[in-house]
Amino acid sequence: MTNNGSGRRVGAEPSRADRGRARTVAITLQITLQPTVAEGASAGRPLPSEHLMPSQNTTSARSRRRVIASGTRTPAASAPSRAAGAQIVDFRAVSKLYTGDVGLDQATFSVDREEFVFLVGSTGSGKSTVMRLLIKELEPTSGTIRVAGRDLSQIARKRVPYYRRNIGVVFQDFKLLPNRTVHDNVAYALQVTGGSRKDIRAKVPDILRLTGLSTKLHNYPDQLSGGEQQRVSIARAFVNHPPLLLADEPTGNLDPETSIDIMRLLYRINRTGTTVLVATHDQAMVDKMRRRVLELSRGRIVRDEAAGLYARDESTREFAHRLRSPSERPASV
Ligand SMILES: Nc1ncnc2c1ncn2[C@@H]1O[C@H](COP(=O)(O)OP(=O)(O)O)[C@@H](O)[C@H]1O
Ligand SMILES: [Mg+2]
Q1: In 129, 153, 174, 243, which residue has its Cα 20 to 30 A from 9's Cα atom?
Q2: What is the mean pLDDT of residues 170-185?
Q3: Which of 244, 224, 242 is CA-nearest to residue 232?
Q4: What is the pTM of this model?
Q5: Ligand 1 centre from 156 Cα, in Å?
């Protein structure tokens, strides 16, 4: 396949494999976008996005964080229950047993609206299980999961695609369509949920500017660096401004410098009011970020550490500067 220099590819007729990939991505994208008003209205009641949107009246999430000493667990029964309206994610004694493996073991935690939270733990500790439970790709074996106060077990199968549109998802391996440009990868995400051409014209340039991709509009994924590809996937996940963004090892394939750029972008998104949950085992990054950390070990929550002293608001510029500073010491709370 060649590029004719004008940004369009010669011979870009999709192959059977590409069409298969497009289908997979279309399904994946179902979980990244919000319903349009029309869809929401016509389809009964999906999870209304306004339920998930940050409330102006909500007490600052940062003022309500708890610190649980390292190495302790929060028993489900005794965990203080924060004001339900403030919580966007709430796991109560959630277990997920796979055949022969424990995915989650009595995990209890909650995340407030507008928080930026790291989910850490070694490989196999249950991070992706949390993410997959949140998008209802998996069902818990026991326990209750609420998102914006809504018990996920009460959402009927056929309503799940609508629910998922409230959640943006970013993966380690980007999952971009190889035969579509940057612009079209993002536009496609709007198309699959019924976005109009007007929507696309209005939203795509905006999100590409926010993610620093305006000059790469006509590039194909294989003409981009790993960091740029991850930016496209974040643009795609965020184009509809979902109230909750999940990123599962978003910097897993990137070098440290590029990882900082990606974290800066996720931080910028968080500052727009979107709650961000990032699974990672990049301990150095987590130490520098000074955000709340939830740690899993063999499916159990073993640490819930507040951002504490470092909770003050930072501009994204200050944030990036601090992350790059070699003298930065890990947060001690
Ligand atoms: N589909 C599955 N079938 C069986 N076991 C699984 C499946 N998915 C995950 N597991 C197991 O559950 C545990 C947690 O996995 P996972 O949530 O993927 O952890 P992490 O994302 O932290 O690496 C691991 O022991 C893993 O092997
Ligand atoms: Mg994982």
Answers
A1: 174
A2: 96
A3: 224
A4: 0.77
A5: 25
CA dihedral 218, 221, 226, 232 (to 10 degrees): 60
124 lines ligand 1 (CB under 6 A): yes
In DSSP terms, 168 is beta-bridged to 245
pLDDT of the residue at 315 = 78
How far is it, in rounded angstroms, from Cα 328 to Cα 333?
15
User: Whole-angstrom Cα distance, residue 102 to residue 299?
Assistant: 6
Is 128 near ligand 1, meaning CB less than 6 Å away?
Answer: yes
Residue 141 has pLDDT above 70, yes or no: yes
**Alpha-carbon gap, residue 135 to 168, rounded angstroms:** 10
List helix spans (H) across the chain.
16-30, 37-42, 49-52, 127-134, 160-164, 182-191, 197-210, 226-238, 256-271, 283-289, 316-324
Beta-bridged to residue 167, according to DSSP, are 244
103 lines ligand 1 (CB under 6 A): yes
Three-class secondary structure assignment of 298-330: CCEEEEEECCHHHCCCCCHHHHHHHHHCCCCCC
Tokens 């190495």 belong to residue = 71
Side-chain-side CA neighbours of residue 286 (13 Å): 20
Which residue's CA is the nearest one to ligand 1's atom 9? 103
Pocket test for ligand 1, best of 128, 249, 283, 302 (most atoms within 8 A of CB): 128
The lowest-confidence range among 82-91, 161-170, 244-253 is: 82-91
Strands lying side by side in the sheet with 300-305: 167-171, 244-248, 275-279, 116-120, 292-297, 300-305
